[in-house]
Design brief:
- The complex is a heterodimer.
- Chain A is α/β, with parallel strands linked by helices.
- Chain A folds into two domains: 115 residues, Response regulator (Rossmann fold); 95 residues, Winged helix-like DNA-binding domain superfamily/Winged helix DNA-binding domain (Arc Repressor Mutant, subunit A).
- Chain A contains eight helices and twelve strands.
- In chain A, the strands form three sheets. In chain A, strands 2-1-3-4-5 form a five-stranded parallel beta sheet, sandwiched between helices.
- In chain A, a hairpin with a 3-residue loop joins strand 11 and strand 12.
- In chain A, helix 2 packs parallel to helix 3.
- The longest helix of chain A has 14 residues.
- Chain A is elongated, with a radius of gyration of 18 Å.
- About 2% of the residues of chain A have low confidence.
- By secondary structure, chain B is α+β, with helices and mostly antiparallel strands.
- Chain B folds into three domains: 166 residues, Beta-Lactamase, CATH 3.30.450.20; 81 residues, Helix Hairpins, CATH 1.10.287; 149 residues, 2-Layer Sandwich (Heat Shock Protein 90), CATH 3.30.565.
- Helices cover 57% and strands 15% of the residues of chain B.
- Chain B contains ten helices and twelve strands.
- In chain B, strand 9 and strand 10 form a beta hairpin.
- In chain B, helix 2 runs antiparallel to helix 4.
- The longest helix of chain B has 53 residues.
- Chain B starts with a helix and ends in a 10-residue tail after the last helix.
- Classes of the chains: A alpha/beta, B alpha+beta.
- At the A-B interface, helix 1 and helix 8 of A face helix 5, helix 6, helix 7 and helix 8 of B.
Amino acid sequence: MRILVIEDDPATADYIARGLAQEGQTAEVARTGKDGLFLALSESFDVIVTDRMLPAPDGLAIVRALRASSVMTPVLVLTALGDVERRVEGLDAGADDYLAKPFAFSELYARVRALSRRPAATSTGPTELMVGVLRMDLLRRVVTRSGNVVDLLPTEWRLLEYMLRHPGQVLTRTMLLERVWDFAFDPTTNVVDVHVSRLRRKLEGPNGPALIRTVRGAGYILDA
Amino acid sequence: MPDARRFDGLRRLVRSFALRTSLGIAAAALLLSLVGAGWGWLRAEAALRQELDLVLAGEAEGLIRDYEAIGPQALLDAARVSARRDALLLVLVQTADGQTLAGRMAGAPAALQGYATLRAPGEPPLRALGALLPGGINLLVAASLSAVEDAARALAWTPLIAAIGSGSVALLLGFVGARGLERRLASVSDVAGLVTAGDLSRRLPQSGRGDEFDRLVVTVNAMLIKLEMLVAAQRQVTDDIAHDLRGPLQRLRQGLEEALADRRDDPALALGIAELDAVLETFAALLRIARAEAGAGTRQAIDLSALVTSVAEAYAPVAEEAGRPFLIDVLPGLTLNGDPALLGRMLANLLDNALAHGAGAVRVSLAAGPVLVVADEGPGVPVAERDAVLERFVRLDRSRGTPGTGLGLALVKAAAQAHGGSVVLGPARTGGGGLAVTVDLAAAKRATVEPTQYAL
């Protein structure tokens, strides 16, 4: 993956770039909005990570300029503490995801990976999702594991569908809350863990092989 | 329902300033014109009678002069002429003991001296003046009282007509005037309501007449501008803190994270990150409360029923795993104008509290109003501490050992108030026991209705 990082704070830019390099990804860093926009328009990236607060043009202006020039590269906007509620504003501007500072690198990386695999908006997508022994028929609304039908509640269905669309990627609790439940807030109660463990019990049975793996301190992976 | 609304409208009208004022003015006008015109009528009647008496006195005097100059024959001639001609003025000449010498006068008494009113049956009433003349002659002059009494009777209606007329005009003018005043006051109250609900940009309209109301409007608008500036300043401080601290905090966190990556098993570093994250969570919660109190955040039409159902349903398995019965009772189709993220977080905080600090069944209900209630069967909150726990960092002694920032209910309160609502803590059952947190959002719904605009 080739990732453009637009960040005016040198320490944070280095931190993101080094973290991405450690994960085996290529990071290009721009220290100003102007440089960032130029790079984003002239070169090809899989994902763009931009700070929201930049000397003009700021993060949202960059997103708008990119979308106006028909550059549809997924954009993750980094925002100030406690600003998560304002993500609607950023999503309206054309950004694909939002993350509040300070963040854990694992959260950033999980989101970058989820963005990079996102299917293009124009494609109709398959009517069937298949990962390993799991098969989800989106038209007939049936889930099978090794051919055996698994009964899922609506929430469990949405959770599994999201996981099947991002196999082999770490999905954090916050991401699941945002994508599966459409919640822009983190409950202190372990809501996500309970739902995942229920889904896991239904999918794996009492002695079946593990399909959903817990990544300590990060989230969950559906193994591809 | 329509009956109830009509009754409600009637009650409001009865209590209204306009009706009370105009009724008061009308009653005063009615009473004053009744007294004034009544007194006038009495005076007019008295004046008419006096006038008649003067006429009689003049006639009597003329006849007496004739009698003194010519003798009794003058009186007898005058009496005969008046009787023959059926004149307006009656003259009667009689002896002192009442024997008629000439003329005609029904019901004439003997030896009349001075004024008298004669009422003979079947005859028009007469006003008479009698004089005893030398020679045993009693002279009586009289005129019909009918004209005077007819006039007095006709005039008797005037006080009543005047009172009813002026009363109804006063009622009408008073009602129109007071209604205008009431409308101007209503527009002040509408704007104040919207400002309270969070729309600080509202201003009262001026009529341009430069009257007392315009002066009030100018003062109130100046107050609103000041209020908006203060809130904007508070919001700016909050935003500045959020923006200025995120850089250092981000570097601190990434420094710790990188150090932890180098020395995988250093428990002190892991603990440092956990502590920092707890501080950041508290900090973020404080910022959210400050933003909610400042009325920041989006306002959009929300299906509150759907939002409550979706948050509650997310929690249902959590309660089930904890062995706690979980009941959701949501009236569908309730909407309001608000901030969905803030309201969702508000309900999540209430459910977090009920699961962490409460006990037994958890009940989530949304009823018309809209009124949201989250109740549990735990030990509840002592009456004396119910207001305190809605403040920042206030926790009950028994909760100190459990995780939490002490900001959950403060955010609930700020979120409710940001939507013009209120939060009340009470027992879950009548007679005490359990905890029911009631969030009344009725005002938030009203705030979506545009106020009627009147020029002030």
